[in-house]
Amino acid sequence: MKSKDRIKQALYDLLSWLEKNQSQHIKVFWSCVFKETIMNQYPHLRLLRNSLLDESVRDYKQLPEKMEKEESAEGKRKEMSEDEEEEETKANSVKKKKKRRKIVLDEGEEPSVSSCKLTPIQRKKSKKVVFSSPLKRGEKGEIWTWPIYKFQIPVTCGKKEGMLNRDRLAKGEKCIAVGREWFTPPQFESFAGKENCRNWKTSIRCENVCLGKLIKEGHLNSAGFIVRRKTAKRLLSPSDLITACEDEDEDEEEDEEEEQGSSSRKANVSDEEEQEVEQAEQHPDVSKKVFNVTCGTKAATLHVKRFASGDCGKSIRTETSWMTPLEFVTWASHQTDPSWRRDIMWEGNPLCVLTEERILQTHSLNCSCELCMPGLKDLENQKNDDECFICKREEGEELVVCDICPLSFHQKCHLPPVNIILGDKSRWMCTFCEFRTAQKWMFREEMEREAAMSEQISQHMKRCQYLLLYLCSADKEQHFATNPSLYLKDYSTIIQMPMWTGKVTDKLQNNLYQTVGEFVSDVQLIFTNSAFYNLENDGFLTMSNKLKELFDSELKKVFNIREESND
Fold first, then answer.
1. InterPro entries from the xrefs (predicted)?
2. Which residues pair with 205 in a beta bridge?
3. Which of 231, 237, 441, 534 has the largest CB neighbor count within 10 A?
4. Are 492 and 425 part of one and the same domain?
5. Tens-digit pLDDT profile for residues 106-158
6. In which domain, by residue range, is 307 found?
7. Number of domains in the chain
8. Which string of DSSP letters, residue by residue, matches 277-337?
């Protein structure tokens, strides 16, 4: 609908129908409306939700009483005869005249104590939520001071638009939402094609005012974000770092001398930015919590929060298990006297670079933390991941851990959903381990694709569950987990048959697929819709194609599908 009046009327009709016919689902309705992704796109809804949660509607309990009084009054009026109604109206008019006379007579008198009491009519009304601009027509104002932008403000960088979350910016987290994707300010600057700009505080703007000015004036609070230059190199020793920073300082001073007189405002902002860039180049990406490391031909990831020392804290994650740095070096190099600081490499440099820069801080010998002095339960917990393998989140319900591999899952994220009682000491094996164990003794001849797709899914349920879990875990940002229509305005108008992994999971669990081909067809529909909707978004299209290739490759392995010849 293009007419605003028709939109409003249709919305009111919808809400009226919901209240009348589906009143038991009103709570579910608002919980769907007030999702974080939707409120990031529509600040009005966040303001509306906050107004519903605070005391601005505290008088709603009086509504039923008022309605009962009105209904009783109407009943009495119906019972009255016409003569009684006339008498009552005359009496009311006489009373009103007396009140008016009394007010006129008492104008010159001081009010008594009793007259100071507020009548129900004089009671202050609760504040209403204002969705429009607080300014009058023709006035100009700062939109970041409007109530609607109390939690987030609209920002632009080049031709890209997004919503900046104030709290996330203050915490140093990914704070700019574009659709369902979150970016840090430097990432948003790169996403907009402005990575060559001097700093994100000058390139990202709100109503043509750079964020650096808003931060300086106190409208925004910003934590430090690491800004890395393309010319920055990885250095091995602290002395090299000092000399390199001195050279860069000299170059920056020369550049500043050349640019003097161009703009005083730009010069003031750039001084603060240069300090942040210098700090970022002196310390190699402190914000990273996970580092990709190698030892010989073996590769793994080092998790900073699990690191304690060389032999304490299983901080290195391989494909099959968690290890301490010493265990990783012994396993990878088979040395009798390994040195984990020297033998473990990160981006071509020994791990001692991180310890010298105090990114990795070795715990003292007297440390009594859970990593240095672990109990039996702590040792067991260190064998498994700290986050769900599917949704990549630690929060939520308690994780269920596999007794064979280091994977952990939320009970609802796993397929099939885990129904065991948490705390049960019986061994549990995840779907990945079950499938790999069965695959060792299972022999199948090569099949044509059509023959594999026509197989009854009831005979291959474990394979399909494995494929779907494999796809969900590969989708690290969970782009395809939920219905895109919830956070993309025009998605339903462009895509006629939306499909997402959550819907495929529900259909698989409810036995709504008859053949393997029906299951695979729905999965392929996810990528087809993505390719059609993101024709102009090369980055998202590339990511979608990679996931499609991964799924197709794993599908051929699982069902032993014969490679198609080019003839």
1. Bromodomain, Bromodomain-like_sf, HSR_dom, SAND-like_dom_sf, SAND_dom, Sp110/Sp140/Sp140L-like, Znf_FYVE_PHD, Znf_PHD
2. 156, 210
3. 534
4. no
5. 444 444 444 444 444 444 444 454 545 555 554 456 777 877 777 888 899 88
6. 290-378
7. 6
8. HHHHHHTT-TT--EEEEEETTEEEEEEGGG--SSSSS--EE-SS-EE-HHHHHHHHH--SS
